[in-house]
């Protein structure tokens, strides 16, 4: 199996993790706001469209915004990205502020990374139940209650260091040789 078959993602920008290194390219291409003209759960979407949509479209000229009225359906935000990913958010009973926040979140993302499928070269029947290791795994829990900087922890150790022990062993070896 070659490395090219490990990840299946079409991409417009070859390495999206470096987006913004030279210049930033907004990955959000198109937003479709689907709503019902009469349904009560679409009230926040209708308020956003009436009061905030023009300002949002002016502040984001690279994003195309479509409105799609639908009968007897709940409100939905559908987003499409440059790399072909699509995201769908159910906006039932959202306020106009929540819809604005969701649109800003969609604008700053690179697409739906949760649907990304990685193929591994190995497989195990018994995965680990211990969880991932972190640098804090085996730290003493008494450090949770200490406020830093702490004088007790910053004191020099009372016992000899390994370097001092090696120097002393070297001196003893030289004396015994002569």
Automatic annotation (TrEMBL):
Keyword annotations: Mitochondrion, Ribonucleoprotein, Ribosomal protein
Domain Ribosomal protein/NADH dehydrogenase stretches: 37-110
Top-rank taxon: Eukaryota
Family matches, as InterPro entries: Ribosomal_mL43 (IPR039927), Ribosomal_mL43/mS25/NADH_DH (IPR007741), Thioredoxin-like_sf (IPR036249)
Principal subcellular localisation of the protein: mitochondrion
One GO cellular component term noted in the UniProt record for this chain: ribonucleoprotein complex
Cellular compartment(s): Mitochondrion
Family, similarity comment: Belongs to the mitochondrion-specific ribosomal protein mL43 family.
Protein name in UniProt: Large ribosomal subunit protein mL43
Organism of provenance: Cryptolaemus montrouzieri
């Amino acid at each position: 199996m070659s490395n090219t078959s490990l990840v299946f993602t079409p991409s417009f920008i070859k390495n999206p993790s470096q987006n913004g290194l030279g210049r930033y390219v907004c990955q959000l291409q198109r937003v479709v706001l689907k709503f019902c003209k009469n349904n009560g759960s679409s009230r926040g979407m209708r308020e956003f469209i009436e009061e905030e949509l023009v300002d949002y479209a002016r502040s984001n000229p690279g994003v195309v915004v479509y409105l799609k009225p639908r009968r007897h359906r709940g409100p939905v935000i559908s987003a499409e990205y440059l790399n072909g990913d699509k995201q769908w958010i159910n906006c039932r009973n959202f306020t106009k502020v929540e819809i604005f926040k969701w649109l800003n979140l969609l604008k700053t993302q690179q697409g739906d990374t949760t649907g990304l499928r990685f193929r591994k070269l190995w497989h195990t029947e018994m995965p680990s139940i211990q969880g991932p290791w972190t640098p804090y795994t085996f730290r003493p829990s008494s450090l949770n209650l200490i406020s830093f900087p702490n004088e007790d922890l910053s004191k020099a150790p009372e016992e000899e260091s390994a370097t001092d022990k090696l120097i002393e062993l070297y001196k003893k070896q030289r004396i015994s040789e002569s």
